[in-house]
Amino acid sequence: MKTPRTTDFQERALLVGLGLKRAPHLPGHSSSETARESLEELAELARSAGAIVTGSVLQMREAIDPASVVGHGKLDEIRAEAEARQAPLIIFDRELTPVQQRNLERGVDRRVIDRTQLILDIFARHARSREGQLQVELAQLNYLLPRLAGAGPELSRLGGGIGTRGPGEQKLETDRRRIRQRVQRIGGAIETLRRQRALRRNARQSVPLGTVALVGYTNAGKSTLFNALSRSEVLVSPKMFATLDPTVRAVRLPSNRRVLFSDTVGFIRDLPKGLLAAFRATLEEVEQAALILHVTDVSNAHHAEHDAEVEKVLAQLGVSDRPRLHVFNKIDRLDPETREAMSASNGNVYVSGLEGTGLDQLLRRVDETMAVDPVQRLRFSIPLADGRKLALVHGLGRVLHSELRDSTMVIDAEVPESLIRRLRLAASDET
Fold first, then answer.
1. Pairing state of beta strands 258-263 and 247-252?
2. Going by DSSP bridges, is the β-strand pair 52-61/12-20 parallel, antiparallel, or unpaired?
3. Could you give the CA distance from residue 246 to residue 69 in angstroms, rounded to a whole number?
4. 33 pLDDT band (50/70/90 cuts)?
5. Positive or negative, the Cα torsion across 85, 86, 91, 96?
6. Which domains does the chain have, with CATH numbers?
7. Could you tell me which residues come within 8 angstroms of residue 300 by beta carbon, excluding any fewer than 6 positions away?
8. CB 267 within 8 A of CB 218
9. Contact (Cβ atoms closer than 8 angstroms) between residue 128 and residue 136
């Protein structure tokens, strides 16, 4: 098999996973299986960051070695494996302390980064909006601060992940005071953007439009589903964390009322705390949502574990009790028998954002579940001469039956409460 060619932004990387034999794990999963699954996910992350994964090493231990994580014997094995595979970069599937990172780099004589730095690197690559870029830089600098104690080659190797993006050499050579000043300035800028976002949200809420937030594990197909529902063109990519900046679009439900759908950043196991804090402003769309759509990639063999990780993040955001629909996406990847058995088994929603399957049912379920601006069924008697009211009922409600009686139109319709208030207000103004 031919060895893939590297580009200027690709590095050959060896992955190192560590599992604890007595660590908690999902029912039906052994600790070693959980560690292997996490290592497979690390490989996806590394490829999303532009690395070429040359191999992996997995160690199961009773406890973490406080100095080098894996112990000196395993360190020699990792160094030999990296030399054999010509991998100048080693990525650990856990967050390393500054001391551990320096000890590992001395032991393997190669650049070492951890899972957190890898995720930060991907975020730096994908952030497009000003707010997203500021949030990523804030998380990067907070990650960097405790690692400034080192000096010499170890410090210079903290360049910024796979492609040497991020704070870079110049910032790494500055002292703590200047970095803290930068952190303070970025925090102020993010707070200003947060207030502006809150003003826009309040302006939206002056009209009773509820928000539906799509959440889920990274690469669950949220953006594809969002595009299918809202007829938008949000970036869709098989790479992890392709969506960082929230996008909000209006969608008309079967009742004819409009709601706002929000596409959000994907979650992942062991999401760095600094990232969750930095992206708090972005995740406010989830905190303010009237309804949460939990999107699951049903074709992924580990989707139950992914769902558990999403539940953890929702709990951290304080929205575990928010009205929610569980949407199982990518049913186009299942065989027909499995798809049919799933669809008939419970009250969840099964869709394919790619093929558009099940979207009508999903919108009906959203319509039924949304508590904002609830729909009522009423009978209206509107004079034919009052074209404005007739247009409002037809435009903002769902007409079930209409009948002409003399010069009056009698209409049975499902309409949102906000329209009822507008019609009553217009009637009072006329009298």
1. antiparallel
2. parallel
3. 37
4. confident
5. positive
6. 12-124 (3.40.50.11060), 207-369 (3.40.50.300), 375-430 (3.30.70.240)
7. 220, 306, 330
8. yes
9. no
Q: Return the residue matching tokens 């769309």.
A: 285
Question: Which amino acid does the sequence have at 368?
Answer: E
Contact 90, 111 (CB under 8 A): yes
pLDDT in tens, 152-208: 444 444 444 554 444 445 445 556 788 888 889 998 988 888 788 777 766 655 555
Alpha helix stretches (DSSP H) within 145-218: 153-156, 168-172, 176-205
Tokens 């112990």, residue? 71
Our separate counts of H helices and E strands in the chain read: 16, 13
For residue range 117-144, list pLDDT tens digits in order: 998 888 888 777 787 788 888 888 888 8
pLDDT of 24 reads 61
The tokens describing 187, both together, are 């925090």
81 falls in which pLDDT band (50, 70, 90)?
A: very high
Mean per-residue pLDDT, 265-294: 76
Three-state DSSP state, 265: coil
Between 280 and 61, name the one with better pLDDT. Answer: 61
Task: For CA atoms 201, 204, 210, 216, give the dihedral sign.
Answer: negative
Contact status, residue 276 vs residue 226, Cβ threshold 8 Å: no
CA atoms within 13 A on the CB side of 125: 23
The CA distance from 91 to 14, in Å, is 6
For residue 423, the surrounding DSSP H or E stretch is helix 417-430
Cβ atoms of 290 and 258 closer than 8 Å: no
Q: Which one, of 223, 199, 202, lies nearest residue 211 by Cα?
A: 202
| Type and span of the H or E element at 154 | helix 153-156
10 vs 27: CA distance, rounded Å: 38
Residue count of the chain: 431
The Cα–Cα gap between 20 and 301 comes to 22
